[in-house]
Amino acid sequence: MARKGGLGRGLGALIPGDEQPARDERVPVTEVPIGDVVPNPKQPRTVMDESKLLELTDSILTYGIIQPLLVMEDVGHDGQRIYTLIAGERRLRAAKAAGLERVPVTIRQSTPQELLEIAIVENVQRHDLNPLEEAAAYQRLMEEFGLTQQEVAERVGKSRTAVANTIRLADLPVEVRAAISSGEISEGHGRALLGLPDEARQVQALEKVIKEKLNVRQTEALVREWTGAADKPKRVKPAASRGPEAITAGFQDALQRELGTKVALRRGAKGKGTLTIHFYNDEDLTGILERILGPESL
């Protein structure tokens, strides 16, 4: 029996924040055999939390699938209809674990680029990707579809600086990447270690960070100490030879590099203007405040 309901309009409704939100009755939903639904070949997530998957399985056993899967309909070589999953892989796995024979779906035609984009946005908004999976996903958007870092940032709702910092994690040695994936250290630790000049020093610093249980700010201080940058004065290039717009853009870029987040500097008449500093979670805010005020101020 087909059920009514489905996903709402726009990307925000397409990728809801909760695992089983209420349905939108405006979008048609049908039920298909669960065996006809195949995983998204461009799914960026490689690791799933088994405890959360068990919780979702219990929810589906009790209430059924409240939010339909988003799929793309196609016809296989044998003429049988197949449904490629766009969003909802965890719901699909939990439905299989619960023994469901049919699942509710909303059908949408998508391009290969959209398959990857939607899967990334779904996982990023739910914080389901570890930092290295996120970096690899951004890299795929750039390499497979020719997107710039700014275009990737616009699609996933992050600053270009945040996307660039995440992508840089792929340059870390395998030992550091493994520590990030396992949760021994955070993405912030990894970004700090990138400040060291070679892999040997990065691995050496990693061992010290884990052994002494250093937080991100302490790791940044360690990197400055090891590179001899702790006491070097910061210099601003002379502005006399540049126009006002170039000067403003230069200051904005310098602030973004220093704070590690998106910054918008707007200058108006008579020297007035606004400076907007973006942050995306409590850790970002804490890091920004520590950079501006110093760790001892918090």
- The total of helices stands at 13
CATH superfamily of the largest domain: Conserved hypothetical protein from pyrococcus furiosus pfu- 392566-001, ParB domain
* Whole-number total of structural domains: 3
Shape: globular
Q: Indicate the CATH topology of the largest domain.
A: Conserved hypothetical protein from pyrococcus furiosus pfu- 392566-001, ParB domain
Query: Portion of residues in helices?
Result: 40-55%
Determine the structural class based on helices, strands and strand pairing.
alpha/beta
Compute the average pLDDT: 75
How would you characterize this protein structure?
The chain is of the alpha/beta class. It folds into three domains: 10-119, Conserved hypothetical protein from pyrococcus furiosus pfu- 392566-001, ParB domain; 124-227, Arc Repressor Mutant, subunit A, CATH 1.10.10.2830; 244-297, no CATH class. 48% of the residues lie in helices and 12% in strands. It contains 13 helices and seven strands. It has helices spanning 10-14, 50-63, 89-97, 112-125, 131-145, 149-156, 160-168, 174-182, 187-193, 199-212, 216-227, 244-259, 282-293; strands at residues 30-33, 37-38, 69-75, 81-87, 102-107, 263-267, 273-277. The strands form two sheets. Strands 1-5-3-4-2 form a five-stranded mixed sheet. Strands 6-7 form a two-stranded antiparallel ribbon. A hairpin with a 5-residue loop joins strand 3 (69-75) and strand 4 (81-87). Helix 5 (131-145) packs across helix 7 (160-168). The radius of gyration is 23 Å and the shape is globular. 28% of the residues are buried.
